[in-house]
């Protein structure tokens, strides 16, 4: 994912979900970025290219221990 696209996705996530979200590049991986909130990993954003269409998929991780708080 190029830096320009990452900035646009990050701005969208901040506007839509939470202003504290940030995107962090993953070492040696170009098709996804880590989503963090307050320095904690909450998910990944994947670049999806299919039949000439480009989209981005947010996969959010919810740990069992987080539900117990």
Structure explained in plain terms:
The chain has 69 residues and is α+β, with helices and mostly antiparallel strands. The protein has one domain (3-63). Helices cover 26% and strands 43% of the residues. It is built from 2 helices and 4 strands. It has helices spanning 3-16, 64-67, and strands at 21-25, 32-37, 40-50, 53-60. It has a 4-stranded antiparallel β-sheet, covered by helices on one side. β3 (40-50) and β4 (53-60) form a beta hairpin. It is globular. The protein starts with a helix and ends with a helix. The mean pLDDT is 94.
Share in β-strands = 35-45%
Overall pLDDT confidence: 94
Query: What's the number of domains?
Result: 1
The DSSP helix count reads: 2
> What is the succession of H and E elements?
HEEEEH
Question: If strands are numbered along the chain, what order do they take across the biggest sheet?
Answer: 1-2-3-4
Structural class: alpha+beta
Q: Major sheet: size, sense and barrel closure? A: 4 strands, antiparallel
Instruction: Provide the low-confidence segments as ranges.
Output: none
Helix content: 25-40%
- Cα Rg: 13 Å
Shape: globular
Q: Distance N terminus to C terminus?
A: 34 Å
Query: How many strands appear in the DSSP assignment?
Result: 4
Quick summary of this structure?
By secondary structure, this protein is α+β, with helices and mostly antiparallel strands. It has helices at residues 3-16, 64-67, and strands at 21-25, 32-37, 40-50, 53-60.
Topology:
Layout: H1 3-16, E1 21-25, E2 32-37, E3 40-50, E4 53-60, H2 64-67
Antiparallel strand pairs: 1-2, 2-3, 3-4
């Amino acid at each position: 994912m190029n830096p320009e696209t990452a900035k646009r996705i990050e701005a969208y996530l901040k506007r839509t979900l939470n202003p504290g979200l940030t995107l962090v590049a993953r070492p040696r991986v170009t098709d996804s970025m880590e989503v963090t909130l307050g320095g904690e990993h909450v998910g990944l954003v994947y670049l999806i290219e299919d039949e000439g269409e480009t989209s981005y998929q947010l996969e959010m991780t919810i740990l069992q221990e987080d539900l117990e708080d």
